Automatic annotation (TrEMBL):
Protein name from the UniProt record: 1-(5-phosphoribosyl)-5-[(5-phosphoribosylamino)methylideneamino] imidazole-4-carboxamide isomerase
Gene3D superfamilies: Aldolase class I
Single Gene Ontology MF annotation: 1-(5-phosphoribosyl)-5-[(5-phosphoribosylamino)methylideneamino]imidazole-4-carboxamide isomerase activity
EC number: 5.3.1.16
Record-annotated active site: D11, D133
Highest taxon, organism lineage: Bacteria
Subcellular location: Cytoplasm
Classification lineage: Bacteria, Pseudomonadati, Pseudomonadota, Gammaproteobacteria, Lysobacterales
The species this protein was found in: Lysobacter niastensis
C-alpha cells in the first residue's frame, strides 16, 4: 500500500477548539488548548498538513478564520486545507490569500456542483478539496446534508462523485456523519464504494478513526488520506504513532 497523508483536524467555534457529535451543534465538546497552540503541537509532532474547519461559518457563511490561518502559516511549517462558509469565488480567493494551500468546499459543492467544477478549472485541482458529508438513511441510500449538516439535499451521491471526477477533481474528503465524533471506527464500505466510483480522485477518510489500525483500514479501502479528529484530541493515540503507522503499513 502507498502512504497515507494524515490531516490532524482543528474545528473552531467561537474561537475555541471543539468537536461535535455527529455534526450536532448542540452536542459540543470543548478543549482547553487554543487553536494556534494545538496547531503548533501538531507541527512539532511531525504533521505536514492541518485540516482547519470554521464551524461558525459552516452554519452561517462568511469564513472567519483568516487571522488564525495567517498565524498558523507564520508560526508553523504546516500546509493547511481549510473551509467553512465558502459561498462564492471571492471566498476562495480570500482564503487562499490568507495562506491556505487548499480550500475545502462542502455545502456549495452539493448545491451547485457546476459552479464548483468551474473553480477546479480556474484555481487548479490542487487548490480545491470537495467535502461530501454523507448520512445513510433507513433505505440504505447515502444522503448529503448541507449547511453544517442541518439541511438535507436531494443530490445523488454517486452521480455527484463521478461528476466531480470528470471535472478534474483531485482531492475529496468524505465524512460518514453517523461516525463523526463517535470513535466507532471508519466506514470502510463507504470508502471502497467511493474509491471504486472515482479511482483517479485522492480520497480523505473522515469520521470514527480511533488509531493506527483504523488508518490502515481506510488505506486498504483505497483512501489516500485520513482526517484525525476526536481520537487524537482525546489522547486515544498520538500523532507520532499515527504517522509511523501510516508510513509503515
Amino acid at each position: 500500500m502507498s502512504g497515507c497523508i494524515l490531516y490532524p483536524a482543528i474545528d473552531v467555534r467561537d474561537g475555541r477548539v471543539v468537536r461535535l457529535r455527529q455534526g450536532d451543534y448542540e452536542q459540543e465538546t470543548r478543549y482547553p488548548e487554543s487553536p494556534l497552540a494545538t496547531a503548533r503541537r501538531y507541527a512539532d509532532a511531525g504533521a505536514d498538513w492541518l485540516h482547519l474547519v470554521d464551524l461558525d461559518a459552516a452554519r452561517s457563511g462568511g469564513y472567519t478564520l483568516a487571522p488564525l490561518l495567517a498565524a498558523i502559516r507564520a508560526d508553523t511549517p504546516l500546509r493547511v486545507q481549510t473551509g467553512g462558509g465558502v459561498r462564492g469565488e471571492s471566498d476562495v480567493e480570500a482564503i487562499l490569500q490568507a495562506g491556505a494551500d487548499r480550500v475545502v468546499v462542502g455545502s456549495l459543492a452539493v448545491r451547485d456542483p457546476e459552479r464548483v467544477a468551474g473553480w477546479i478549472r480556474d484555481f487548479g485541482a490542487e487548490r480545491i478539496t470537495v467535502a461530501l458529508d454523507a448520512r445513510q438513511d433507513e433505505q440504505g441510500i447515502w444522503r448529503l446534508p448541507v449547511a453544517g449538516w442541518t439541511q438535507d439535499s436531494d443530490r445523488q451521491f454517486g452521480v455527484l462523485v463521478r461528476g466531480f471526477a470528470d471535472a478534474g477533481l483531485r482531492h475529496m474528503l468524505c465524512t460518514d456523519i453517523a461516525r463523526d465524533g463517535m470513535l466507532t471506527g471508519p466506514n470502510a464500505d463507504l470508502y471502497r464504494a467511493l474509491t471504486g466510483l472515482a479511482p483517479e480522485v485522492e480520497v480523505q477518510a473522515s469520521g470514527g478513526i480511533r488509531g493506527v489500525e483504523d488508518i490502515r483500514t481506510v488505506q486498504s479501502a483505497g483512501c489516500r488520506g485520513a482526517v484525525l479528529g476526536k481520537g487524537l484530541l482525546e489522547g486515544r493515540f498520538t500523532l507520532e504513532q499515527a504517522l509511523e503507522g501510516a508510513v509503515s503499513c
